[in-house]
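At this stage, I needed to go through a protein sequence along with its fold in token form, as given directly below:
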Amino acid sequence: QVQLVESGGGLVQAGGSLRLSCAASGGTVSTYDMGWFRQAPGKERESVASTSWSGISTYYADSVKGRFTISRDNAKNTVYLQMNSLKPEDTAVYYCALKYRSNDFNYWGQGTQVTVSS
């Protein structure tokens, strides 16, 4: 059973940076797409960024383009989300997700809270 564990969330002032990590265990995820999602209070979960298994193909939501960077280290079974120039509207619980032998994201982490103060 694959498990995903996020870390790196916290409280940061607007304009600051955070780096989220998502470590996978229980299986090798190097050949599967991974992504980051977020959910703010009272809002639906939204896709933030995703990466192909190779890291060559990436996707970013318009709201984070130019500020966030997704990357992965397949040797470490880990995916990262570098978040720069953070804004209060980036405040949310951030979730790591994996497309494990599926066309859809079917494995999820427990989430890590990111709070950006103005």
In short: The first strand starts at residue 3 and ends at 7. The mean pLDDT is 96.
